Amino acid sequence: MSDTATATPQVRGRRKVRLGTVIADKMDKTVIVQVGSSKAHRLYRKTVRQRTRFKVHDEKNECGVGDLVRIAETRPLSKEKRWRVLEIVEKAK
Q1: pLDDT per residue over 56-83, tens digit each?
Q2: What is the pTM of this model?
Q3: Is residue 68 one of the residues assigned to a domain?
Q4: Residue 79 and residue 69: Cα distance in Å, rounded?
Q5: SS (H, E, C) 49-91
Q6: Is residue 4 very low, low, confident or very high in pLDDT (cuts 50, 70, 90)?
Q7: 70 CB contacts (<8 Å, ≥6 apart)?
Q8: CATH code, 69
Q9: Number of compact structural domains in the chain
Q10: Domain interval for residue 58
Q11: Does residue 2 lie within any of the structural domains?
Q12: Which are the contacts of 34, defined by CB distance < 8 A and separation ≥ 6?
Protein backbone atom coordinates (compact mmCIF):
# COMPACT_ATOMS: atom_id res chain seq x y z
CA MET A 1 0.00 0.00 0.00
CA SER A 2 1.36 3.45 -0.88
CA ASP A 3 1.63 6.37 1.54
CA THR A 4 -0.62 8.62 -0.54
CA ALA A 5 -3.57 6.23 -0.22
CA THR A 6 -3.43 6.14 3.58
CA ALA A 7 -2.47 9.77 4.17
CA THR A 8 -5.17 12.04 5.56
CA PRO A 9 -5.83 15.32 3.78
CA GLN A 10 -3.81 18.21 5.16
CA VAL A 11 -5.84 20.39 7.52
CA ARG A 12 -5.48 24.15 7.22
CA GLY A 13 -4.84 26.26 10.28
CA ARG A 14 -7.70 28.21 11.78
CA ARG A 15 -8.28 31.61 10.19
CA LYS A 16 -8.52 34.72 12.34
CA VAL A 17 -11.99 36.21 12.61
CA ARG A 18 -12.64 39.76 13.86
CA LEU A 19 -15.68 41.96 14.49
CA GLY A 20 -15.40 45.59 13.44
CA THR A 21 -17.10 48.71 12.12
CA VAL A 22 -16.94 49.94 8.52
CA ILE A 23 -15.45 53.45 8.51
CA ALA A 24 -15.02 53.97 4.74
CA ASP A 25 -16.60 52.46 1.63
CA LYS A 26 -15.43 54.71 -1.20
CA MET A 27 -13.36 52.05 -3.00
CA ASP A 28 -14.74 49.46 -5.40
CA LYS A 29 -15.13 46.04 -3.69
CA THR A 30 -13.09 47.27 -0.71
CA VAL A 31 -14.07 48.71 2.66
CA ILE A 32 -11.98 49.90 5.57
CA VAL A 33 -12.92 48.22 8.84
CA GLN A 34 -11.81 49.43 12.25
CA VAL A 35 -11.38 46.75 14.91
CA GLY A 36 -11.06 47.82 18.52
CA SER A 37 -9.79 46.00 21.57
CA SER A 38 -8.89 46.81 25.17
CA LYS A 39 -5.73 45.79 26.95
CA ALA A 40 -4.33 46.42 30.40
CA HIS A 41 -1.13 48.50 30.43
CA ARG A 42 1.78 46.30 31.50
CA LEU A 43 3.07 48.59 34.25
CA TYR A 44 0.12 50.72 35.31
CA ARG A 45 -2.73 48.20 34.77
CA LYS A 46 -4.90 50.93 33.27
CA THR A 47 -7.18 49.77 30.45
CA VAL A 48 -5.90 51.15 27.16
CA ARG A 49 -8.07 51.07 24.03
CA GLN A 50 -6.36 49.95 20.87
CA ARG A 51 -7.69 50.13 17.31
CA THR A 52 -6.53 48.68 14.01
CA ARG A 53 -7.74 49.40 10.49
CA PHE A 54 -7.98 46.68 7.89
CA LYS A 55 -8.66 46.92 4.16
CA VAL A 56 -11.31 44.27 3.59
CA HIS A 57 -12.64 42.69 0.38
CA ASP A 58 -16.39 43.23 -0.12
CA GLU A 59 -17.27 41.34 -3.30
CA LYS A 60 -20.87 42.61 -3.67
CA ASN A 61 -20.31 46.19 -2.41
CA GLU A 62 -22.97 45.58 0.26
CA CYS A 63 -21.29 47.27 3.22
CA GLY A 64 -21.91 50.89 4.16
CA VAL A 65 -20.32 53.26 6.65
CA GLY A 66 -21.31 52.35 10.20
CA ASP A 67 -22.13 48.69 9.54
CA LEU A 68 -20.96 46.09 12.05
CA VAL A 69 -19.24 43.30 10.09
CA ARG A 70 -17.47 40.02 10.76
CA ILE A 71 -14.24 39.66 8.76
CA ALA A 72 -11.95 36.68 8.19
CA GLU A 73 -8.31 36.38 7.24
CA THR A 74 -7.62 35.18 3.71
CA ARG A 75 -4.83 34.92 1.14
CA PRO A 76 -3.38 38.21 -0.12
CA LEU A 77 -5.85 39.76 -2.57
CA SER A 78 -3.83 42.90 -3.28
CA LYS A 79 -0.92 44.86 -1.81
CA GLU A 80 -2.77 45.63 1.44
CA LYS A 81 -5.93 43.47 1.37
CA ARG A 82 -5.70 40.26 3.39
CA TRP A 83 -9.23 40.12 4.87
CA ARG A 84 -12.72 39.50 3.47
CA VAL A 85 -16.25 40.18 4.72
CA LEU A 86 -17.91 37.07 6.15
CA GLU A 87 -21.22 38.66 7.07
CA ILE A 88 -22.89 41.94 7.93
CA VAL A 89 -23.93 41.54 11.55
CA GLU A 90 -25.84 44.81 11.82
CA LYS A 91 -26.65 47.48 9.24
CA ALA A 92 -26.12 51.14 10.18
CA LYS A 93 -29.20 53.13 11.02
Answers
A1: 999 999 999 999 999 999 999 999 999 9
A2: 0.81
A3: yes
A4: 22
A5: EEEEEEEEECCCCCCCCCCEEEEEECCCCCCCCCEEEEEEEEC
A6: low
A7: 17, 18, 19, 85, 86, 87, 89
A8: 2.40.50.140
A9: 1
A10: 30-93
A11: no
A12: 20, 21, 23, 51, 52, 53, 54
